[in-house]
Protein backbone atom coordinates (compact mmCIF):
# COMPACT_ATOMS: atom_id res chain seq x y z
CA UNK A 1 0.00 0.00 0.00
CA UNK A 2 1.12 3.59 -0.51
CA UNK A 3 2.36 5.82 2.25
CA UNK A 4 -0.28 7.91 3.97
CA UNK A 5 -0.60 11.53 2.98
CA UNK A 6 1.39 14.01 5.02
CA UNK A 7 1.23 17.78 5.22
CA UNK A 8 3.86 19.79 3.39
CA UNK A 9 4.57 23.13 5.06
CA UNK A 10 6.09 26.20 3.44
CA UNK A 11 8.19 26.78 6.53
CA UNK A 12 9.67 23.29 6.33
CA UNK A 13 10.48 23.67 2.63
CA UNK A 14 12.20 27.03 3.11
CA UNK A 15 14.10 25.67 6.11
CA UNK A 16 15.34 22.70 4.08
CA UNK A 17 16.29 24.99 1.19
CA UNK A 18 18.33 27.12 3.58
CA UNK A 19 20.02 24.01 4.93
CA UNK A 20 21.01 22.83 1.44
CA UNK A 21 22.41 26.23 0.47
CA UNK A 22 24.31 26.51 3.74
CA UNK A 23 25.82 23.03 3.31
CA UNK A 24 27.09 23.90 -0.19
CA UNK A 25 27.55 27.63 0.33
CA UNK A 26 30.57 28.18 -1.92
CA UNK A 27 29.07 26.23 -4.81
CA UNK A 28 25.76 28.12 -4.76
CA UNK A 29 27.55 31.45 -4.31
CA UNK A 30 29.60 30.90 -7.47
CA UNK A 31 26.50 29.87 -9.44
CA UNK A 32 24.70 32.96 -8.19
CA UNK A 33 27.52 35.27 -9.26
CA UNK A 34 28.00 33.86 -12.76
CA UNK A 35 24.38 33.07 -13.70
CA UNK A 36 21.63 34.24 -11.32
CA UNK A 37 23.05 37.72 -10.68
CA UNK A 38 23.43 38.59 -14.40
CA UNK A 39 19.86 37.37 -14.98
CA UNK A 40 18.57 39.57 -12.14
CA UNK A 41 20.55 42.55 -13.43
CA UNK A 42 19.20 42.10 -16.96
CA UNK A 43 15.63 42.01 -15.65
CA UNK A 44 16.08 45.23 -13.69
CA UNK A 45 17.91 47.11 -16.41
CA UNK A 46 15.17 46.53 -19.01
CA UNK A 47 13.17 49.71 -18.19
CA UNK A 48 16.38 51.73 -18.55
CA UNK A 49 17.21 50.28 -21.98
CA UNK A 50 13.61 50.16 -23.21
CA UNK A 51 11.53 52.74 -21.26
CA UNK A 52 7.83 52.05 -20.92
CA UNK A 53 5.66 53.80 -23.49
CA UNK A 54 8.46 54.12 -26.06
CA UNK A 55 9.29 52.01 -29.08
CA UNK A 56 12.62 50.15 -29.00
CA UNK A 57 15.23 51.95 -31.13
CA UNK A 58 16.47 48.67 -32.51
CA UNK A 59 14.52 45.48 -33.00
CA UNK A 60 17.85 43.68 -33.23
CA UNK A 61 18.91 45.02 -29.83
CA UNK A 62 15.63 43.90 -28.29
CA UNK A 63 16.02 40.45 -29.86
CA UNK A 64 19.57 40.09 -28.54
CA UNK A 65 18.43 41.20 -25.10
CA UNK A 66 15.62 38.61 -25.02
CA UNK A 67 17.93 35.80 -26.18
CA UNK A 68 20.59 36.63 -23.58
CA UNK A 69 17.92 36.91 -20.87
CA UNK A 70 16.47 33.52 -21.86
CA UNK A 71 19.91 31.87 -21.84
CA UNK A 72 20.73 33.15 -18.36
CA UNK A 73 17.25 32.19 -17.14
CA UNK A 74 17.43 28.60 -18.37
CA UNK A 75 21.05 28.28 -17.24
CA UNK A 76 20.15 29.46 -13.74
CA UNK A 77 17.24 27.04 -13.53
CA UNK A 78 19.26 24.12 -14.86
CA UNK A 79 22.38 24.54 -12.71
CA UNK A 80 20.71 25.50 -9.43
CA UNK A 81 18.14 22.71 -9.78
CA UNK A 82 20.86 20.16 -10.58
CA UNK A 83 22.95 21.33 -7.62
CA UNK A 84 20.03 21.44 -5.18
CA UNK A 85 18.88 17.92 -6.03
CA UNK A 86 22.33 16.41 -5.60
CA UNK A 87 23.03 18.60 -2.59
CA UNK A 88 19.86 17.32 -0.94
CA UNK A 89 21.35 13.83 -0.94
CA UNK A 90 24.78 15.16 0.09
CA UNK A 91 26.35 14.11 -3.19
CA UNK A 92 29.59 15.89 -4.10
CA UNK A 93 29.10 18.95 -6.28
CA UNK A 94 31.61 20.04 -8.90
CA UNK A 95 31.21 23.37 -10.67
CA UNK A 96 32.45 22.09 -14.04
CA UNK A 97 30.15 19.05 -13.89
CA UNK A 98 27.25 21.29 -12.94
CA UNK A 99 27.84 23.58 -15.91
CA UNK A 100 28.24 20.57 -18.21
CA UNK A 101 24.81 19.34 -17.08
CA UNK A 102 23.34 22.21 -19.10
CA UNK A 103 24.17 20.30 -22.27
CA UNK A 104 21.43 17.82 -21.40
CA UNK A 105 18.93 20.17 -19.75
CA UNK A 106 19.00 23.45 -21.69
CA UNK A 107 17.04 22.32 -24.76
CA UNK A 108 14.50 20.26 -22.73
CA UNK A 109 13.94 23.28 -20.46
CA UNK A 110 13.41 25.49 -23.50
CA UNK A 111 10.95 23.07 -25.12
CA UNK A 112 8.97 22.70 -21.90
CA UNK A 113 8.86 26.48 -21.46
CA UNK A 114 7.56 26.88 -25.00
CA UNK A 115 4.82 24.28 -24.46
CA UNK A 116 3.74 26.03 -21.25
CA UNK A 117 3.71 29.42 -22.96
CA UNK A 118 1.69 27.93 -25.83
CA UNK A 119 -0.93 26.67 -23.38
CA UNK A 120 -1.15 30.06 -21.67
CA UNK A 121 -1.27 31.83 -25.05
CA UNK A 122 -4.16 29.63 -26.19
CA UNK A 123 -6.07 30.50 -23.03
CA UNK A 124 -5.36 34.20 -23.60
CA UNK A 125 -6.51 33.87 -27.21
CA UNK A 126 -9.81 32.28 -26.16
CA UNK A 127 -10.33 35.00 -23.55
CA UNK A 128 -9.59 37.65 -26.17
CA UNK A 129 -12.17 36.16 -28.54
CA UNK A 130 -14.76 36.10 -25.76
CA UNK A 131 -13.95 39.71 -24.87
CA UNK A 132 -14.48 40.79 -28.49
CA UNK A 133 -17.80 38.93 -28.63
CA UNK A 134 -18.99 40.59 -25.43
CA UNK A 135 -17.80 43.97 -26.70
CA UNK A 136 -19.76 43.66 -29.95
CA UNK A 137 -22.90 42.78 -27.98
CA UNK A 138 -22.50 45.61 -25.46
CA UNK A 139 -25.25 45.84 -22.83
CA UNK A 140 -25.79 46.92 -19.22
CA UNK A 141 -24.02 43.77 -17.98
CA UNK A 142 -20.87 44.38 -20.02
CA UNK A 143 -18.69 45.70 -17.17
CA UNK A 144 -19.73 42.94 -14.78
CA UNK A 145 -19.20 40.31 -17.47
CA UNK A 146 -15.69 41.59 -18.23
CA UNK A 147 -14.75 41.61 -14.53
CA UNK A 148 -15.97 38.03 -14.15
CA UNK A 149 -14.10 37.02 -17.30
CA UNK A 150 -10.85 38.52 -15.99
CA UNK A 151 -11.28 36.86 -12.59
CA UNK A 152 -12.03 33.46 -14.13
CA UNK A 153 -9.00 33.79 -16.40
CA UNK A 154 -6.76 34.75 -13.47
CA UNK A 155 -7.96 31.80 -11.39
CA UNK A 156 -7.54 29.36 -14.28
CA UNK A 157 -4.05 30.56 -15.21
CA UNK A 158 -3.01 30.42 -11.54
CA UNK A 159 -4.38 26.88 -11.34
CA UNK A 160 -2.33 25.90 -14.39
CA UNK A 161 0.79 27.44 -12.88
CA UNK A 162 0.22 25.45 -9.69
CA UNK A 163 -0.18 22.20 -11.61
CA UNK A 164 3.04 22.81 -13.54
CA UNK A 165 4.95 24.23 -10.57
CA UNK A 166 7.72 21.61 -10.42
CA UNK A 167 7.89 20.95 -14.17
CA UNK A 168 11.39 22.42 -14.49
CA UNK A 169 12.65 20.15 -11.72
CA UNK A 170 11.16 17.16 -13.55
CA UNK A 171 13.00 18.23 -16.71
CA UNK A 172 16.39 18.38 -14.97
CA UNK A 173 16.02 15.40 -12.62
CA UNK A 174 14.00 12.97 -14.73
CA UNK A 175 15.29 14.02 -18.18
CA UNK A 176 11.81 14.63 -19.59
CA UNK A 177 10.89 17.38 -22.02
CA UNK A 178 7.96 18.97 -23.83
CA UNK A 179 4.53 18.16 -22.41
CA UNK A 180 5.72 15.15 -20.35
CA UNK A 181 7.19 17.25 -17.48
CA UNK A 182 3.96 19.25 -17.28
CA UNK A 183 1.89 16.10 -16.97
CA UNK A 184 4.28 14.65 -14.41
CA UNK A 185 4.23 17.90 -12.41
CA UNK A 186 0.43 17.96 -12.36
CA UNK A 187 0.46 14.49 -10.80
CA UNK A 188 3.10 15.33 -8.20
CA UNK A 189 1.40 18.58 -7.18
CA UNK A 190 -1.79 16.80 -6.12
CA UNK A 191 -2.10 17.53 -2.43
CA UNK A 192 0.62 20.21 -2.52
CA UNK A 193 -1.07 23.06 -4.38
CA UNK A 194 -1.57 25.18 -1.25
CA UNK A 195 2.14 25.35 -0.48
CA UNK A 196 2.78 26.05 -4.17
CA UNK A 197 0.30 28.92 -3.99
CA UNK A 198 2.10 30.33 -0.94
CA UNK A 199 5.40 30.18 -2.82
CA UNK A 200 3.81 32.07 -5.72
CA UNK A 201 2.60 34.73 -3.28
CA UNK A 202 6.14 35.10 -1.94
CA UNK A 203 7.30 35.63 -5.51
CA UNK A 204 4.61 38.27 -6.02
CA UNK A 205 5.71 40.11 -2.86
CA UNK A 206 9.29 40.08 -4.09
CA UNK A 207 8.17 41.49 -7.44
CA UNK A 208 6.23 44.25 -5.68
CA UNK A 209 9.32 45.20 -3.69
CA UNK A 210 11.44 45.48 -6.83
CA UNK A 211 8.64 47.32 -8.64
CA UNK A 212 8.38 49.85 -5.82
CA UNK A 213 12.09 50.60 -6.26
CA UNK A 214 11.49 51.09 -9.97
CA UNK A 215 8.57 53.49 -9.41
CA UNK A 216 10.62 55.59 -7.02
CA UNK A 217 13.47 55.98 -9.49
CA UNK A 218 11.01 56.58 -12.36
CA UNK A 219 9.37 59.53 -10.55
CA UNK A 220 12.68 61.05 -9.47
CA UNK A 221 14.43 63.82 -11.42
CA UNK A 222 18.03 64.89 -11.92
CA UNK A 223 20.58 63.59 -9.45
CA UNK A 224 17.85 61.89 -7.43
CA UNK A 225 16.96 59.78 -10.46
CA UNK A 226 20.50 58.43 -10.78
CA UNK A 227 20.78 57.80 -7.04
CA UNK A 228 17.59 55.74 -7.02
CA UNK A 229 18.52 53.96 -10.24
CA UNK A 230 21.87 52.97 -8.70
CA UNK A 231 20.03 51.80 -5.59
CA UNK A 232 17.71 49.72 -7.73
CA UNK A 233 20.55 48.18 -9.71
CA UNK A 234 22.70 47.27 -6.71
CA UNK A 235 20.20 46.44 -3.97
CA UNK A 236 17.54 45.14 -6.36
CA UNK A 237 19.93 42.81 -8.19
CA UNK A 238 21.33 41.44 -4.94
CA UNK A 239 17.86 40.96 -3.48
CA UNK A 240 16.52 39.21 -6.56
CA UNK A 241 19.59 36.97 -6.77
CA UNK A 242 19.11 35.74 -3.21
CA UNK A 243 15.36 35.28 -3.63
CA UNK A 244 15.66 33.45 -6.96
CA UNK A 245 18.34 31.15 -5.58
CA UNK A 246 16.18 30.19 -2.60
CA UNK A 247 13.12 29.92 -4.84
CA UNK A 248 14.80 27.45 -7.21
CA UNK A 249 16.20 25.35 -4.36
CA UNK A 250 12.81 25.40 -2.62
CA UNK A 251 11.22 24.09 -5.83
CA UNK A 252 13.54 21.09 -5.71
CA UNK A 253 12.68 20.46 -2.06
CA UNK A 254 8.97 20.68 -2.92
CA UNK A 255 9.50 18.19 -5.75
CA UNK A 256 11.16 15.70 -3.38
CA UNK A 257 8.48 16.23 -0.74
CA UNK A 258 5.83 15.61 -3.42
CA UNK A 259 7.54 12.34 -4.28
CA UNK A 260 7.40 11.45 -0.61
CA UNK A 261 3.74 12.44 -0.51
CA UNK A 262 2.99 9.96 -3.30
CA UNK A 263 5.14 7.22 -1.81
CA UNK A 264 7.77 7.37 -4.56
CA UNK A 265 10.64 8.51 -2.37
CA UNK A 266 10.34 5.43 -0.18
CA UNK A 267 10.58 3.14 -3.20
CA UNK A 268 13.51 5.07 -4.64
CA UNK A 269 15.75 4.98 -1.57
CA UNK A 270 14.45 1.66 -0.15
CA UNK A 271 13.75 3.08 3.26
CA UNK A 272 12.32 1.11 6.15
CA UNK A 273 11.36 3.75 8.70
CA UNK A 274 13.69 6.75 8.56
CA UNK A 275 16.09 7.82 5.86
CA UNK A 276 18.86 10.35 6.17
CA UNK A 277 18.55 12.60 3.14
CA UNK A 278 21.03 15.35 3.82
CA UNK A 279 24.29 15.59 5.72
CA UNK A 280 25.98 18.96 5.59
CA UNK A 281 29.64 19.78 6.03
CA UNK A 282 29.18 20.00 9.79
CA UNK A 283 27.68 16.53 10.03
CA UNK A 284 24.12 17.74 10.70
CA UNK A 285 21.40 15.49 9.32
CA UNK A 286 18.03 16.28 7.82
CA UNK A 287 15.72 13.30 8.26
CA UNK A 288 12.48 12.62 6.42
CA UNK A 289 10.27 9.95 7.91
CA UNK A 290 8.71 7.40 5.58
CA UNK A 291 5.85 5.47 7.11
CA UNK A 292 4.80 2.11 5.69
CA UNK A 293 1.32 0.70 6.10
UniProtKB/TrEMBL annotation:
The keyword NADP does not apply. The keyword Transmembrane helix applies. The chain crosses the membrane at residues 28-50, 62-85, 106-135, 141-174, 195-218, 238-258. Keywords: Membrane, Transmembrane, Transmembrane helix. This is Transmembrane protein.
